[in-house]
Design goal:
4 strands; 4-stranded mixed sheet; 35% helix
Amino acid sequence: MDIRVELQIPPSHQDRFDYAERMAIWFVAKLNGYDTTELDMFTDIIYRYLNKYFSDKYYINKSFCVEVDVVSGRKVTYSSLEDESVPMLLEETISEINRL
């Protein structure tokens, strides 16, 4: 049996700078904070969300797709993931979930 799960995880806040550009921020919290790979994955999710639902009408500003861990104070932007060539783990994680 092949079960597919569609995830929709809207950001904490989304807005636009002007009529052409979209941004979002997601505040997350976990006791002792999230590790870097978790924050990277959340940042990938927030960018994909904006890209899927708003890219037909707006430019998605990767510098302002922001994930903030309110416990540790760390933040990650999607543009920093691309600049640092961080491996995107979301696809692998979803595949693992589907294999269960």
